[in-house]
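Risk register update: the risk of archive-format incompatibility is retired. Evidence:
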Amino acid sequence: MSNQVQGMADVRDMYMAHNMFRREFSLVPGLLRGTPEGDTSRSRIVGAHVDLLCRILHAHHEGEDELVWPKLHDRGGAVAAELVPVMEGQHAAIEDALKRVNELLPVWRETATEGAKLADVFDDLYARLCEHMKMEEDNILPLAEKYITATEWNGLGGHGMAAFSKKELPLCFGFVMYETDPVVIKTVLNHMPLPARLLLPRIAPRMYASHALRVHGTATPVTAPAG
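Archived output:
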């Protein structure tokens, strides 16, 4: 019997998000180091991209903190009791790196100076993020499939959507659609309101392609590094 029939979490959308984070965050240090010193036109484009990425990551982890860890801790027994504090600690370390980004990014965005310092922060952030996502995929997602219902899991998507404006949402979805199995995309869309189900498949890929061309110089940036 499938997870959907049993009413338990279908965690494929987490891999969708993780692939996006691996791809985009792996590219950020190069974007920062590749911006010429003093080129504020370029730093504002890259800075807006980086700001959006960091807000997506923050909202994603906030949703897990509020909606996933407490349920696993209550239901997952000794295994979850050991793993959940590690996940929470990793989130805290990533959040510390995001706070450092928030300290440095506004100045770099407006002045295009000391980009190397900001890139160093992203090198550290990316390493922490990859370690966390690998551990989550290996250990947490199997627990979620056993102990979290589909309805509860789908609340993560609602939490993430609530964190962004209607103008931002199509681009956010375009980020995750870029290299995702269409079957998974359709499953995710099925939990959204009808207007989103109809419009996002057409609008989101175009918005991401335009955004990627402006930021990365190509509408088809490299796909995610292996997890």
